[in-house]
Amino acid sequence: MTQINRRSILGASAAFGGLTALGVGASAAMLSNNAPGDDLPTGAWTPLQNMPFPVQEIYPTAFRKAETTSNGFKPAPMNILVNAGGLTPDEGYNVTDAVTFYDPAYDQWGFGTSLPEPRHHISLVANNGYLYGIGGFARNENGGWQMRGNCWRTGSLSEQWSDMQPMPHPQAESICQPIGPNIHVVGGRAPAGSSNRDWADHIDTDQHWLYDDASDKWFKRAPLPTPRNSSAGAVFNGALYVIGGRTVAGGNTSAVEVYDPLSDRWERARPMPKAQGGLAAAVLNRKIYVFGGEYFSPAGGGVFAEAWEYDPIADRWRAVAAMPRPRHGLGAVTLGNNIYVVGGAAKAGGAETSAALDRFEI
Length: 362
Fold this sequence. Notes:
Elements: H1 6-12, H2 28-32, E1 44-47, E2 61-65, E3 78-84, E4 87-88, E5 94-95, E6 99-103, E7 108-111, E8 123-127, E9 130-134, E10 137-140, E11 143-147, E12 151-154, E13 162-163, E14 175-179, E15 182-186, E16 189-191, E17 202-204, E18 208-212, E19 217-220, E20 232-236, E21 239-243, E22 246-247, E23 251-252, E24 256-260, E25 265-268, E26 280-284, E27 287-291, E28 294-295, E29 302-303, E30 307-311, E31 316-320, E32 331-335, E33 338-342, E34 357-361
Antiparallel strand pairs: 1-34, 2-3, 3-6, 4-5, 6-7, 8-9, 9-12, 10-11, 12-13, 14-15, 15-18, 16-17, 18-19, 20-21, 21-24, 22-23, 24-25, 26-27, 27-30, 28-29, 30-31, 32-33, 33-34
């Protein structure tokens, strides 16, 4: 039987201790748990200024930008959305080095200093006043999915990026999140052997690394219980949630696993109501919101419009307002009292790469 996955299609076109462990056979009604809270608001969507260009397979983040006024006074830093790299639809899915930022105060986009090299699937993480770009894939005459372990850093969008200590092993399509003073890189994919040119050269990984930027060193941590790629990640109450994703052998998964950095231990939480991969997540008002993703089938698959709210304290999922512009390979970033959902592609595998930016509020 032919394995169907997004790469073949792309190429062809809270309490931590109180979590409940559920088997994969749990019913959809049990998982959604819409009963208490059916009368709660489900949210609203607003289209905003498009990105400067369409791009997918992105991992944007919030960052702090300070501006100096003409009289020399420096106002309080503003939260902005920053994206770097990704796949653009020109020239058969080009890889970009562009860094763009969105300022919600003006509903406008601008450009920062470009990455040292073009990357797709590069993760952006804001930590200790710096912006980090970690991992991702390079593309040139030697192949389009050359996994990289780079760790780059900048203190300002107007400054050049600096080389930091790379990951011990290349890793991409991972969860990259700050917890306390450190950055955690969890799961995703890694090279299966000496070859590192194409997507087929990589396997799902359970590797979990902690980066200490004070010492510029990497340390190994407890592996992810379910190796998978293209998951969504979020940090709530100091715990890391790895949500959904997919495996090469089994396709999409609904698994949710939670990491406690104090005990270096993982536990299972209630699975998603649907198995979704290539999705995005963000935290707002003590809830985790999850958006979009894609699925595959012999007919080519599709993109999820579903959006979900997860209550980490109650360990409960419920449906919220669906995405008016469904996408996968997108990003979700919290700024103030809103979540900004950006970029991605409107069809499974990469067709109809999008420049859309939508604001979700609830």
